[in-house]
Amino acid sequence: MKRALFLIAASFIMVTSCQHGSENKNIRAKYVFLFIGDGMGLQQVNATQVYIDSVLKNHQNISFIDFPVQTFATTYAANQYITCSAAAGTALSTGSKTSIGTLGLNYNHTDSLFSIAKKIKEKGFKIGLLTTVSIDHATPAAFYAHQGSRGSSYDIAKDLIKSKFDFFASGGLLDPFGKKLKDSVESIYSLGNRNSFVFTTNLAAIDSLKNKHHSVVYSIPNPASESSIKYRIDQDSTDITLADLTKKAIQTLNNSKGFFMMVEGGKIDWACHANDAATMLNEVIDFSNAVSKAVEFYNAHPDETLIIVTADHETGGFSLGNKENKYSIKLSLLKNQKISKEQFQILVKNYFSRVPKPTFKEMLNLAKEKTGLGNENLSLGLTENEIKKLNEAYANSIKPNKDSKIKSTYLSEPNEMFSNTCIDILNRKSAIGWTSTSHTGSPVPVYVLGMGGTQFTGRIDNTDIPKKIEKVIGLQ
Q: Residue 413: which pLDDT band, with cuts at 50, 70 and 90?
């Protein structure tokens, strides 16, 4: 707990320590990892470490929290201070600001912007892009696509084929058959096959496929909503994790010339949009586990490897501490949440679709089972006001709803009030605060380990990160 309290005080201090103090300027990084925790602000990182120290007590730190170079990066877009993942992804990939919703184009869409991945590929390095969401989502797409709208999923996927990058791994594609388009089009799978791309859901098969095809596109066999990987809190031992993908990517890309790998923890952002603290903490841990695979590689190649961990923006205006609890934090209460808010919403909707409808008491029992709410032995007894709020939410949710389709909580207001109210009460009791269900303009942390790390000292902008990578890898 002493370490946890220290982190609360120390996490706001900018640490700029020299690693490899006598770095040979003639030695260049051969292996570069860029990890992007989508929506991951400093508070999300700090709260996760406090949760690990004070609740899990497994004596494991976040894998990047002690990296020797630490600073902050501003994230604003060309036309708006609070950015989006497309504009921020483009800044992180190209070193140039662009407008909201834009991928790989300048702010008014009159010129293309080219990513460091493309430039590094042209120098003979292998390229890998990994994410827990779909591979045509904003952040990974920013490294290969040139589209005026991040929503142009089919055209973004066509740009993926044009990139000729070596390895892609994700939850899948959003619109591989172009169903959102007016006219019929060739599927991305067919187009890819004609260009020596192979698509697979078999992780073990990648080793043999990479020698027969120019590019390998891996998608998990059991994707969650919006072609994503399941939240860590919803996974079981059979599910593929971001750490699994990172390990496989290292095996697939490793070669004597070098590689560049972008790895995104995309659902940190989704959990923060949903104001789902327990799920967010688990996603940061999942992201940290992926970074640890790169650290293992660094330990074997310390003079040739560079690892950068950062975020595209902060999401949710998250705080550790709220007005209800004042100076007290109760993160241990979050351990009682068994599933993500998204899965809880699905479960609750299924209950309300039954005939006869569930009683309020039955729904309270469900809440107790999945979140601990109402269990006084867990310090989660409900006040009269909280029971009143849950009863009102129950009355709202039990009404017939024409829009009965279950939606992801990503970028959408919750359309089922009972589950939303349960998670909100649990957050408040745990001393978690949220100011938004959208992004904020806060600077994001940057953690750096390895060759050329001292290039990243001092307060920087997100556009500086790819420029510094170019310098360290020898493109400038």
A: low
Q: What is the 3-state secondary structure (H, E, C) of 246-278?
A: HHHHHHHHCCCCCEEEEEEECHHHHHHHCCCHH
Taking residues 112-125, what's their average pLDDT?
97
- pLDDT (0 to 100) of residue 17: 41
d(CA 263, CA 132): 9
Check residue 411 and give its pLDDT.
62
What distance in Å separates the CA atoms of residue 127 and residue 34, rounded to the nearest whole number?
A: 11
Q: Label residue 54 exposed, middle or buried (CB < 10 Å: 0-12, 13-18, 19+).
A: middle
d(CA 450, CA 301): 9
> Is the model's pTM score more than 0.90?
yes
d(CA 280, CA 297): 26
Q: Give the amino acid at 173.
A: L
Are 8 and 105 in the same domain? yes
Separation in Å, CA 118 to CA 50, 140, 212, 383:
39, 13, 22, 57
pLDDT reported for residue 399: 84
Neighbouring residues of 434: CB distance < 8 A, sequence distance ≥ 6: 275, 316, 317, 318, 319, 427
Separation in Å, CA 123 to CA 24, 32, 127, 162: 22, 14, 11, 17
Contact 21, 304 (CB under 8 A): no
3-state SS track over 271-316: HHHCCCHHHHHHHHHHHHHHHHHHHHHHHHCCCCEEEEEECCCEEC
- The number of domains in the chain is 2
Residue 432 in contact with residue 319, Cβ under 8 Å? yes
Which residue range forms the structural domain that includes residue 233?
2-318+439-473
pLDDT attached to residue 15: 44
Q: Which residues lie across from 22 on neighbouring strands?
A: none
Domain co-membership, 407 together with 469: no
pLDDT by residue (tens digit) across 357-380?
999 999 999 999 999 999 999 999
pLDDT tops 90 at residue 214: yes
DSSP alpha helix (H) spans, 11-122: 42-51, 85-94, 116-122
Report d(CA 114, CA 145) in Å as an integer.
9
Indicate whether 274 and 398 sit together in one domain.
Answer: no
Query: 341 and 290 in one domain?
Result: no
**How confident is the prediction for the chain on average, in pLDDT?**
93
Q: Residue 135: name the closest of 122, 154, 113 by CA.
A: 154
| Residue 244 clears pLDDT 70, i.e. is over it | yes
255 lies in a domain? Answer: yes
How many CB atoms are located within 10 Å of the residue 359 CB?
Answer: 11
Q: What angle do CA 327, 333, 338 make, to 5 degrees?
A: 150
CA distance 414 to 402: 15
Is the same domain home to 198 and 171? yes
- The identity of residue 226, as a single letter, is E
